[in-house]
Amino acid sequence: MAIDRLEFDAAGDLSLVRAPAARQGAAVDRALFAEDLGELLQAGLPLREALAVMARGLPRAADRASMEGLRQRLLQGATLSQAMAEQGPLFGDVLVALVRASEQTSDLPANLGRYASAARRLEALRNQLVSAAIYPALVTVVGLGVVVFLLGWVLPSFTSVLDGRTSGLSGATARLVRWAVALGEHRSVWLAALGAALAAVSLPLAWPGGRQRLQQVAARLPGLRPTLRLLHASRFFASCSTLTQGGVPAVQALELAAPLLLDEARAPMRQALARLRAGEALAEVLPADLLGDPVVPRLLEVGQRTGALPATLARIAVLLEARVARQLQRLIKLLEPALMLLVGLGVGGVVLLMYLPLLELSSSLQP
Q1: What's the rounded Cα separation, in Å, for the pair 16 and 9?
Q2: Range of 328's domain?
Q3: What InterPro entries is this protein classified in (predicted)?
């Protein structure tokens, strides 16, 4: 029952990137926690015994202490939701609210299963995104490696034989020869500068703030913006569906799921919640980023009219997840040839720089 730690945001839902090794305390995989606890309860184990079984299967002492802390609070008379809430952000607002509502409806195993199922769908979507990005990332890394090798070793070695013999070369080509020779002589300096630049880019991504900043930058890119908007909307509707199916009131579910939206949609969402409390229809108040698909408002209207809003929210989440997957495939199909073209131009440009001095020198020696 080893926990594969994933990063969850403030609302308790799955993020798009894996977290690094836990730096402080426990790092509970909430989907696995909900799945295992639901299965054990469904099998007939009492809650305290189920938590004890789960604690024994955890590899980290901090994780075992968290499970044991829940069990001790239950022995003291607290409810499961109270015990989970007392552990701060460890279990997230969404899961705590779902458990609290389940305690009123006596449907905890089924609701935990729904939470785990929604989280696993988002995990599958994240894995699809990562898998789709592997090939372009490999092409980029290999291409940059080839260009760095040609610039750092091959080009200086190739042009060093021409150093001091630049009288027959044009000014630009002569400067190129001198630049390539200097590049080879100071290889350690520019390699250190390159390493520092890579560290400056990669180190911030090891922290939650850096990853959040990266997602904000990606959200502004024209090609990625529609896909990210759909992705965050699908996460929002999936969490709302899980909460409402578990007995959480719709307005509270929307409020708990709001942190899953892009930053730019959170202020409109707060306004939408105020209008919803005033009695307006859900399809009329949600931000445009969530209703960009023409099917969504129609589904919401039907769900409210028929009283099947939780199931409707689940269908919307699945619909948006499918569209995200299709958009990712289209984006990758466009990105792969573009990267191959850029790598080819980079390598070809370096090769041309290598042969340009020889071509000019040979032409100057002809009678």
Answers
A1: 10
A2: 91-366
A3: GspF/PilC, T2SS_GspF_dom, T2SS_GspF_sf
Q: Find the range with the poorest average confidence among 14-18, 66-70, 173-177, 195-199.
A: 14-18
**155 occurs within a structural domain:** yes
The pLDDT value recorded for residue 14 is 39
Structure tokens at 215: 């997602």
Q: What is the rounded radius of gyration, in angstroms, for the C-alpha atoms of the chain?
A: 28
Phi, psi (5° rounding) for residue 8?
-115, 145
Query: Among candidates 6, 34, 35, which has minimal Cα distance to 18?
Result: 6
Closest CA to 70 of 94, 49, 44: 49
Please give the Cα distance from 173 to 175 (Å, whole number): 5
How high is the pLDDT of residue 122?
82
Residues 35 and 167 in one domain: no
With respect to residue 221, please indicate whether it lies within any of the assigned structural domains. yes
Indicate the angle between helix axes 187-202 and 171-185, nearest 10 degrees.
80
Q: Are residues 285 and 174 in the same domain?
A: yes
Which of 12-26, 123-137, 307-321 has the lowest average pLDDT?
Answer: 12-26
Separation of alpha carbons 291 and 2, rounded Å: 39
Question: Cβ(259)–Cβ(240) under 8 Å?
Answer: no
Q: Is the pTM above the cut of 0.85?
A: no
Answer whether 228's CB lies under 8 Å from 262's CB.
yes
* 331-338 contact pairs (CB < 8 A, 24+): 331/132, 331/223, 331/224, 331/227, 332/132, 332/133, 332/135, 332/136, 334/223, 335/136, 336/135, 336/136, 336/139
**Has residue 10 got a pLDDT over 90?**
no
CA dihedral 10→16→21→24, nearest 10 degrees, is -10
Count CB neighbours of 330 within 10 A: 11
| Residue 189 within any structural domain of the chain | yes
Helix, strand or coil, per DSSP, at residue 138: helix
**Hey, CA dihedral for 238, 243, 245, 249, is it positive or negative?**
negative
Q: Are 206 and 235 in contact (CB under 8 A)?
A: no
- Does residue 138 sit in the same domain as residue 33? no
Does a structural domain hold residue 86? no
The whole-number pLDDT of residue 3 equals 31
Spell 118-137 as b/e; 16+ CB within 10 A means b. bbebbbebbeebeebeeebe
Domain count, the chain: 2
The pLDDT, as a whole number, for residue 85 is 92
156 and 67 part of one domain: no
